[in-house]
Amino acid sequence: MRGKKPYQILWLVCTLALAGLATGVRLWQESTAFKGDFGLPVRGATASVAMVCVLVMAVAVLCILAARQPIVRPPRAQVRGRRWAMSFFATGDLVFLALMWFSAFSALAAVPMLFGQGRALWKAYQVALAMKTWQGGDNGVLSMVTAVLALLAFFGLLQIGRDGYHPGRRSRGGFWAALPACAGCGWLLNTYRNCAADPVLWDYVPLLLAVIAGMLMYTDWAGMSCAAARPRRTLWLAGMTVVCSWVALASSPDTGTAMLLISQSAAALAALWRLPINLQNPPKVGWEGNLDTCSIQDAEPQVEPQDQQPPLTQPEPQPRVEEDWTWSREESQAMNCTGENKEEDTHV
């Protein structure tokens, strides 16, 4: 298996080609499939049909690549699930480190924008309540929650890149990958809350697909460090995250949303860059017991051999010797003579 060429280049070329094609079709759809000042969709537009066909083709092509991805199962460690913990190790790989840190700082750049947007909506909500003119809508809470979760995602992505570049250190890969997944949950709620009232489905469906694909990718990423590894599905989700994110970026979203899309797209490219290589040629970095995973059981402690000592034996009881305390008559008289305390006569 080590003699075969990794699927890394094939994954990257196919994913980027599909993403570029989908982005071009989306731009074509934006310019021809909507009409009027309100941007209502044109029924049966050619660009919309082509957009659906491109997305279906992307799903099919990535499924074929995932099914043909060769996988060499890492050796089973003492604890179940540790054999997949090295799947994202990239010792000395500057490309993986650069992509992950670019993803992390892109998520960090979205924090002030999302928080400022949510704060402005919250102030407008308070003013409307004071004037008793509130008719419902977005009060900005979900935007501020998404900003906080994006900050947590920044730390998670930063730590994933660091642990992949220095795989000898103890880490909690499942925990760090779960932070961007939680950010995806908040982002999904915020996106649906803002776009649910839009009658034009093509305005927000690509964005929802991108958010869902990224959230599921991070969830499977966390599962690779635990006992729920699905490597082929992780690769497929990474490819779909890139395609859907580029389609959503072509719709010109707000700056905070665009930075989050760029962040998850860069993380997906990092997964496509490193995961196919490690699945085909599993890395060997030190002892697997040093890997800190989120497995349930711990490794059995090793007991050092001790020197055997001879068993303690109790001494045998000695026979009791009775002494002869009988005295002769002469000895008794001598003791009486010497043992008496003679008082001196003071009158003499």
From TrEMBL:
Region entry Disordered, spans: 299-348
Residue spans crossing the bilayer: 48-67, 88-115, 141-161, 173-192, 204-223, 235-252
Highest taxon in the source lineage: Bacteria
Keyword Membrane (UniProt): yes
Compositional bias (Basic and acidic residues): 319-332
Keywords attached to this entry: Membrane, Transmembrane, Transmembrane helix
Keyword Transmembrane helix among UniProt keywords: yes
Positions with biased composition (Low complexity): 299-311
Protein name: Uncharacterized protein
Lineage: Bacteria, Bacillati, Bacillota, Clostridia, Eubacteriales
